[in-house]
Amino acid sequence: IGTKFLGLYMVYLNITLEKGKLYSQATGENKQVMQPVSDTRFWVKSYDASIYFNLNDQGDVESITYHKSLCKKKEPIQSNDKESLNAYAGWYHSAELNTSYQVKYEDEQFYIAHVSNGKVPLKRVWNDGFETDAFYMPLVDFQRDDKGTIVSLTASQYRSRNIKFNKMQSPN
Question: What is the pTM of this model?
Answer without folding.
Answer: 0.64
